[in-house]
Design brief:
Order of helices and strands: EEEEHEHEEHEHEEEE
Number of strands: 12
Helix content: 10-25%
CATH superfamily: Dihydrofolate Reductase, subunit A
Distance between the termini: 18 Å
Largest sheet: 8 strands, mixed
CATH topology: Dihydrofolate Reductase, subunit A
Length: 193
């Protein structure tokens, strides 16, 4: 079974979006380089960011996100982002009316059910949990093996927190990955158990 990784781009003060769900400059690093990150050519990063990010993205089998992110992205028009095979959406509501039942999206109630379904779908590939409320819930439930973050040099002051509403201490190991990209610092921590 693959590991469960909580992941996202984050401001240095710990936010994944502002109060209006806008990422501001958090994704600028994905377009300020000269190395295409995917086949679309829309994402171009530095060589260091490419080497780190592409290798990670190629390991992901399933992404877990919350219904809020699903709605903000209009469900990526039924196509999982970045070449991922499946998306598991944590929600108390059914799929949107008219949603294509053949699209590789799975709607489940609760993070435990989401991780179980994602692991089933991913096999030995990585299960990625989006940072924010759902990621924080998965961390609090002891379901996350690793925390990866792309730290962007900006201070938001307030907004949507990387770890959501986690209100207890969780220990991480020393970073096992520290890579400096262009306008981003890629970090990876194992979760201490």
């Amino acid at each position: 079974m693959g590991k469960v990784v909580m992941y996202g781009s984050v401001s240095v003060d710990g936010f994944v979006a502002d109060e209006n769900d806008q990422p501001g400059p958090l994704f600028d690093w994905l377009s300020n380089g000269d190395v295409p990150l995917d086949s679309s050519g829309a994402l171009t990063v530095s060589q260091a960011s490419y080497d780190h990010t592409r290798a990670y993205w190629d390991q992901i089998g399933v992404t877990i996100c919350g219904r809020h992110v699903f709605d903000l992205t209009d469900g990526w028009d039924g196509t999982p982002p970045s070449g991922i095979d499946h998306v598991v959406v944590v929600t108390h509501r059914p799929a949107p009316e008219g949603w294509d039942p053949e699209a590789p999206f799975h709607f489940v109630d609760g993070v435990e059910a989401a991780v179980a379904r994602a692991q089933e779908l991913a096999g030995d590939r990585v299960v990625e949990v989006a940072a924010g409320d759902v990621g924080g819930q998965a961390l609090a439930a002891g379901l996350v093996d690793e925390v990866r973050m792309d730290v962007v040099p900006v201070v938001f002051g307030s907004g949507k927190r990387f770890f959501g509403s986690v209100d207890a201490q969780h220990l991480l190991a020393d970073p096992d990955v520290v890579i400096r990209g262009d306008r981003v610092l890629h970090l990876s921590y194992s979760v201490r158990r």
